[in-house]
Amino acid sequence: MIEILIFFLILIILTFISKKFGLFPNFTGENHQIFLDEKKIPLIGGILFLILSLYIFYEKNPIFCFMIFFIFSIGFFSDTGIVKSPKIRILFQSLIITIGVYFLDIQISSTRISLLDNIIEVKIFGIIFSVFCLMILINGSNFIDGLNGLLLGYCLIILFILAKLDLLNFLQFEKNLLLFLFLSLIIMLFFNYMNFFYLGDGGSYSIGLVLGFLLISIYNLSGNISPFFIILLLWYPCFENLFSILRKNKFKNSPIIADNKHLHQLLFFFIKEKFIKKNLFSNNISSILINSYNLIIMLVSSINIYSSNFQTFLIVTNVLIYFIVYKYLFIYRFEKK
Known about the structure:
The chain is mainly α. The protein has helices at 2-21, 45-57, 62-79, 86-104, 114-120, 123-144, 150-164, 175-193, 200-222, 227-233, 235-250, 263-274, 279-301, 308-335.
């Protein structure tokens, strides 16, 4: 496919130019960035994903392309230090997503929870609920983007599960276009693992938005998939966000200020101190372990995507495992001495 070759060349050229001229460096001195390599790796992954997304969606949904672009721009301004305030970023995110949800009519149609369904049947409340869910996902995607390949790998796993179940057919994309999407993301994943670039806020926001849009669309079009299957697919970034808010509130820290106590960061330190000393290897192994678990749990969930009881059981299992692992790693990192 000529498109793959062109995308690959864009990736190589953009990476080379960024490194040569020191464009979009990753390290700005923020607390959570001590986990990144000390070298100034360019934050161009978001630009690459933006190019990929616009190519995939521009014919079918040009309005959604504008939405992706503006969400990416918020992250890009954050990456470049133009917009430093998390409150301003959240304000603009909510504004853009609200406009997009309204004009694209991508509201969540049903949750199979009677009380909540009665509320979201009212259009304004339905919009608010959909915006809230997308905001949790977008910022949760940014939270887990602290290890090479973690977010890109997670995105590929979700797309793989959707393809395995033939759910992508609901979106009526051409097979060549879907193949191009998969191959492009695999190439990005490889170069991300090799430390050629990072996604940055622009990339993580964009990936979260695209995943949310795809899954809401598939759920609404399918009619009988359990909404808890969709939640299961997105449980990790969403729960990471919600748990982080609760954790920071407990310790009286601002929920919108980045810290170094996320699960993937604790796992990184554990592996680095116990097994592998080099940052890059510890980084990549940590990412692979987390995504391997998520792949297994999603494959199990795909056995019965129509049963809410089955999917709820898996979600609760995930949360319990998360708490157990998190507590162990937290104690090891901050209380072992």
